[in-house]
UniProtKB/TrEMBL annotation:
Listed name of the protein: Anthranilate phosphoribosyltransferase
Enzyme class name: transferase
HAMAP family: TrpD
Sites where the protein binds 5-phospho-alpha-D-ribose 1-diphosphate: 81, 84-85, 89, 91-94, 109-117, 121
Oligomer and partners: Homodimer.
Length: 345
């Protein structure tokens, strides 16, 4: 079928079957397909409302085009959210990734520059001294040496360059926001991800099941966040070896205090990098608590702890022991070494 035909189907509010969406996705990644048609298709999908089959099919095709990254250690976690929540917090999941790694979880975190926020994960990493121009082999070495690496989306998804231009022109969230966290080139057994659509968390968890995750948690946070929040009740679905289990949780349920969203506002990349360093340095407050809440959920999603409450305690210890900050410093040192080597060559 042609892109025009798929556009016509979606504009009539009909959902695409899994195989149809795979075909449409292949057309989107085909350089010969008109960019305006792709943009119209993405906008129409968004207006119709994406389904789990459409998201899973696009994720499968996008991952098939990713650069191969196969570290020797198997049980990795990604804690990247979909973004696009418009809340403009500091970089919670990036900070939590160091906490998870400090606690012994192996983290392969997918990320990108800002598209719909003041500071995307790669923007804050740059400000911390972790550059984005790693080769695939560098990422693999970092994963194996430190148990944590940040996989810069354009480096692992070369086919996404043209799509990125189209997304920037659209300027609004599309199905690619939903698909981003699902296309990690490392074969993940576990995952913790968030979306700012409480109506879609069950479908999103079913996508993770279709993609072969053993354990995963999807959150839609209080106040419209794509991460767990201290500001009220967070809605979750827990995927456990095929079972999809919904539950909800507040800060109080795991021994943390309520705080409004205004307490975790972020700034630009330099401000957010300073926030990450201060949290990992042990500075307590709502931002610290937000990070240990999310890292605690990540620890549970990974099977590293048996409850989220235990996860919060382990995450707190990862920071207060200095292990989380040591992981950040080790990744910065690795990045600097790669950069110096490139200068010499």
């Amino acid at each position: 079928m042609s892109m025009e035909r798929f556009l016509s189907i979606v504009e009539k509010q009909r959902h695409l079957m899994y195989e149809e969406m795979k075909e449409a996705a292949e057309l989107m990644f085909n350089e010969a397909t008109d960019e305006d048609l792709i943009a119209q298709f993405l906008i129409a999908l968004s207006k119709k409302g994406e389904t789990s089959h459409e998201v899973a099919a696009l994720a499968a095709v996008m991952k098939s085009y990713a650069n191969d990254l196969t570290p020797t250690e198997a049980r990795y976690l990604d804690n990247c959210g979909t973004g696009g929540d418009g809340v403009n917090t500091f970089n919670i999941s990036t900070t939590a990734a160091f906490v998870l790694a400090g606690a012994g979880v192996r983290v392969a975190k997918h990320g990108n520059r800002k598209i719909s926020s003041a500071s995307g994960s790669q923007d804050v990493l740059d400000a911390l001294g972790i550059h984005s121009d790693f080769q695939i082999s560098d990422m693999q070495n970092l994963l194996e040496q430190q148990g944590i690496a940040f996989l810069f989306a354009p480096a692992v998804h070369p086919k996404m360059k043209r799509i990125g231009t189209i997304r920037n022109k659209i300027g609004k969230t599309t199905i690619f926001n939903l698909v981003g966290p699902l296309t990690n080139p490392v074969s993940l057994e576990t995952q913790f991800t968030g979306i700012n659509r409480p109506d879609f968390i069950m479908e999103y968890a079913s996508v993770l099941r279709m993609l072969g995750r053993e354990r995963a948690i999807v959150v839609s946070g209080a106040g419209g966040m794509d991460e767990a929040s201290l500001a009220g009740q967070n809605e979750f679905v827990f995927l456990d070896h095929g079972d999809l289990i919904p539950f909800s949780l507040t800060a109080d349920d795991v021994g943390l205090e309520y705080a409004p969203l205004s307490a975790i506002k972020g700034g630009d990349a330099v401000e957010n990098a300073a926030t990450t360093r201060s949290i990992l340095g042990g500075e307590r407050g709502p931002k610290f608590d937000t990070v240990v809440l999310n890292a605690g959920i990540g620890l549970f999603a990974n099977g590293h702890v048996s409850t989220i409450q235990e996860g919060v305690k382990v995450a707190t210890e990862s920071i207060l022991s200095g292990k989380a900050l040591a992981k950040l410093d080790a990744v910065v040192a690795f990045s600097e070494k790669i950069r110096q080597k490139a200068v010499i060559q």
